[in-house]
Amino acid sequence: xxxxxxxxxxxxxxxxxxxxxxxxxxxxxxxxxxxxxxxxxxxxxxxxxxxxxxxxxxxxxxxxxxxxxxxxxxxxxxxxxxxxxxxxxxxxxxxxxxxxxxxxxxxxxxxxxxxxxxxxxxxxxxxxxxxxxxxxxxxxxxxxxxxxxxxxxxxxxxxxxxxxxxxxxxxxxxxxxxxxxxxxxxxxxxxxxxxxxxxxxxxxxxx
Length: 207
Known about the structure:
Layout: H1 23-28, H2 31-38, E1 44-47, H3 65-82, E2 86-90, H4 111-122, E3 125-127, H5 129-144, E4 149-151, E5 156-161, H6 163-179
Parallel strand pairs: 1-2, 2-3
Antiparallel strand pairs: 4-5
């Protein structure tokens, strides 16, 4: 939701992300087909899944990191390329998880390694959001990171972001887009500027 505010207006962001979907269920619901019908040569397709792929108790969503997860991601990569668009893979942003010593702990198992391996094998740019977000949570610490997640008096959500968290993660994504030379400095704005929280709005949850 924060990404458009960090890119120049020539870059139009079409946000197709849907809560609760995995690489499998997003595809099975025809949502990739809808993207591929609209995508055009020269477009970028940012692909990031893992949180819901990890749900072993849900066969409609679960994928195994080194087999079905990679197989489904390849559908997105191949679909974009077939239409002249450029696929970009991204590791999943980390949850807020700390051990007793106050160290930020990874939560995605082998999924980040699997998507890194796929990106290398397919020659696709990789945004390592997992590594960068884990480092950021470590830098901020257990208490300060609460300001980035949906932590309230009635809810302690260590997965979903509030506006400050969305802005912080969008900055990580844009810096990776620059590092991998998917974007050039002229494509980016406000990277070091404050972005008002009220600019960030959420879509209604999908069914």
